[in-house]
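Protein modeling request. Please complete all fields; requests missing the sequence field cannot be processed.
Requester role: graduate student
Desired output: 3D structure, token encoding
Chains: 1
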Amino acid sequence: MSEMTGSDSTQPARLLTASAAVALIVGIVIGAGIFKTPALVAGISGDAGWALTIWVVGALISMAGALCYAELCTAYPHAGGDYHFLRRAFGRDLAFMYAWARATIINTGSIALLAFVFGDYFSTLVPLGTHSSAIWALIVVLMLTMVNIAGIHASTGLQMLLLVLEVLGLLAVAVAGLFFGDPAAPATLSWFDKTPGAGALGLCLVFVLLTFGGWNESAYVSAEVKGGPRTMVGVIIISMLALTAIYLLVNLALMWGLGQQGLAGSKTAASSLVGMVFGPWAEKALGLSVAIAALTSINATMIVGARTNFALGRDWDSLHALGQWQTQVGAPRKALWAQALISIVLVLLGMQEADGFSAMVEFTAPVFWGFLFLVGVGVMWLRQTDPHTVRPFKVPLYPLLPLVFCGACAWLTYSSVNYAISQKAIHVSGWLIVSGVVALLLLRWRERRFDARRAAAVQAP
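Delivered output (461 residues):
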């Protein structure tokens, strides 16, 4: 592949500050989940002590995974993130399958779904006709894509602003619950009075780990953070500590403000709490926080998702257009446009069948967690097959922490497969894999044609 000229470069530059990277990671993790999961965990566990313990365990497992990624990010910094790690460990064919899943459903589907979440809220304020939510979703996808096209400084600047607004909403929940909640509520809390069954604890942990999900996206900016590998380690650890503190604080506030039964029985616990304390206007304002959380996650997902497409373009001649990087602004513009196009198609699909589209994205979870399991295996595999690469940071307690991470991913893969089977929807993951295999075969066929043309050009007089 020929070198790019002008404002294009083969690799990203280190333009991202540590604080912007933290905002990116925290913003992509904190989504609508924290507004729903606490009530589910409280209801299933039936005990405040066990509920908070499960959140702590989920944080520790997530930290184990984050430390695995810290080793990989510092040893193999690359805009391709875990796609690149899989390529180094298991070859580009398997890595392509993961990138295909991210590009076609996992990332773009998340963007489309979150855009609908924003559209549902904004349609109550400014309705735009019969398909108001979908129209707002399309507007959001296009506007945030344009922000990302403008460059890394514009996208991360917006990310930090959105994250501040999102955290302020969560702090309002914390203040309401810890200082102004129902005075009788704390007395209703039980602290390890009854032990839930193993199945209930396991189900709670699944919800908690899903709510922590997204920290792995830190890998996609590992080659762009100023300060190099050591700074990246700090970014990952600070992000995980901040997420843990926010999640525990929100859970404790909801328990303290609503009580055990009040939290477990509420479908909108956070909104109910601030509404009870500050009035109906605050409840409506917190609804805006959910919309802001959606915007924050969409923007962060766009930033990291386009970098997978960029890495594909660097690895496959047939996709070389995606592998262009605009150095002056720090963004892969063509990769961003490709991501936006797929997201728009998915929004239009969701306009026709919203529930079916949502389920389609949900039932690809086995593919995602299966590949994350392979990334965990890759930490140990690369230690054996590539021992001479300098590792500025090594996972502590090796190999225990990688095994804990692999075990959690394997369990989540198993749980998501069982759920998909129970809903008679495991075929969704099957079709995603089959389509990836077909795309890979077509791509390899095109690559052979490129190789043949190059060979003929070399032999020509």
